[in-house]
């Protein structure tokens, strides 16, 4: 059910950059009333400026998905301005690219606090009203890392595996109430997440350069740089897939984005674990020390 103006209302987390920004703009261009949230007031101001230039119904809110009060205030602000939320897009997240043994426990907690508990916090604030209304759609931004784990991505991949499991449960639990849950699984797309990851890795410079996994860091990051140079998929391409997931009368359970994500999904189905491991090790230059 749309609001009084006939527009459907979308709440989108992580809207200040990358995939979230692209999706917010595209949905607003499509006629949705979009509320994009993030923690950076400066970046959100840039998004609002762009929306004004294009005369779009796109508003931004400072909201920290890791804070109960911030989420409560944000959801209440959207409802006070636009009424019920028709679509929730859980996009907020970041990625550590650090070896399991090296990553400090406090950073494991940070990874899960944003990518998993943040998603839970926002969803639990929105779902009860969707359930009562017997309508609504949840769009969960997962990743190819949600079903395929590569070196240095243990924490990030674990968080996205959790997103996949939560979404699978919600797809069944909310079915009786007409609320649909959809997963978006992007592969490698150049966006702000890489810059954030590089900044986070600076704390681990000594481990990266001189620790026992130094060779692994070098080969894995070299492979990632090659993938970045070859990547043709843009945040706007992913936004179009998100739009399809929002508008489809019968959405798929999951939408892989990029050729890598599609290849990896098929590979998981047809390759044995041993064959998949060989492919990953070859791709990332992993060899056994003599």
Helices and strands in order:
Blueprint lengths: L8 E4 L5 H12 L3 E6 L2 H13 L4 E5 L5 H15 L4 E4 L14 H29 L2 E6 L12 H20 L5 E8 L5 H10 L3 H6 L3 H17 L4 H13 L6 E4 L1 H12 L2 H11 L7
Parallel strand pairs: 1-2, 1-4, 2-3, 4-5, 5-6, 6-7
Task: Report on the architecture of this protein.
The chain has 290 residues and is of the alpha/beta class. The protein is 54% helix and 13% strand. The protein is built from 11 helices and 7 strands. It has helices spanning 18-29, 41-53, 68-82, 105-133, 154-173, 192-201, 205-210, 214-230, 235-247, 259-270, 273-283; strands spanning 9-12, 33-38, 58-62, 87-90, 136-141, 179-186, 254-257. The chain has a 7-stranded parallel β-sheet with strand order 3-2-1-4-5-6-7, with helices on both faces. Strand 1, helix 1 and strand 2 (33-38) form a beta-alpha-beta unit. Helix 1 (18-29) packs across helix 9 (235-247), helix 3 (68-82) runs parallel beside helix 4 and helix 4 (105-133) runs parallel beside helix 5 (154-173). The N and C termini lie far apart (64 Å).
Rounded to the nearest angstrom, the distance between the terminal CA atoms is: 64 Å
Strand adjacency order, main sheet: 3-2-1-4-5-6-7
The gross shape turns out to be globular
Radius of gyration: 19 Å
Report the total helices: 11
Low-confidence segments: none
Mean pLDDT: 92
Could you describe the largest sheet, including whether it forms a barrel? Answer: 7 strands, parallel
Indicate the structural class: alpha/beta
β-sheet strand percentage = 5-15%
Which sequence of SSEs, written as H and E, runs from N to C?
Answer: EHEHEHEHEHEHHHHEHH
Quaternary structure classification: single chain
What portion of residues is helical? 40-55%
> Total number of β-strand segments?
7
């Amino acid at each position: 059910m749309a609001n009084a103006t006939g527009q459907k209302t979308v709440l989108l987390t992580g809207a200040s950059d990358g995939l979230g920004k692209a999706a917010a703009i595209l949905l607003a261009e499509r006629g949705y009333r979009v509320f994009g949230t993030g923690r950076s007031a400066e970046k959100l101001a840039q998004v609002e400026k762009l929306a004004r230039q294009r005369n779009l119904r796109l508003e931004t809110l400072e909201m920290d998905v890791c804070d109960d009060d911030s989420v409560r205030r944000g959801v209440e602000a959207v409802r006070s301005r636009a009424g019920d939320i028709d679509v929730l897009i859980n996009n907020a997240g970041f990625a550590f690219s650090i070896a399991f043994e090296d990553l400090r426990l406090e950073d494991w907690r940070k990874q899960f606090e944003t990518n998993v508990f943040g998603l839970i916090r926002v969803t639990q604030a929105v779902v009860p009203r969707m359930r009562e209304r017997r309508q609504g759609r949840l769009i969960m931004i997962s990743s190819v890392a949600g079903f395929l784990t590569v070196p240095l991505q243990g924490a990030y991949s674990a968080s996205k595996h959790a997103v996949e499991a939560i979404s699978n449960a919600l797809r069944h639990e909310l079915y009786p109430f007409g609320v649909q849950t959809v997963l978006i699984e992007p592969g490698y797309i150049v966006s702000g997440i890489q810059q954030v990851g590089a900044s986070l890795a600076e704390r681990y410079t000594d481990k990266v350069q001189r620790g026992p996994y130094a060779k692994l860091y070098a080969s894995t990051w070299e492979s990632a740089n090659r993938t970045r140079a070859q990547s043709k998929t843009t945040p706007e391409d992913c936004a179009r897939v998100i739009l399809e997931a929002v508008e489809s009368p019968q959405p798929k359970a999951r939408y892989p984005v990029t050729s890598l994500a599609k290849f990896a999904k098929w590979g998981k189905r047809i390759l044995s674990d041993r064959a998949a491991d060989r492919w990953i090790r070859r791709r990332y230059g992993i060899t056994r020390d003599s």
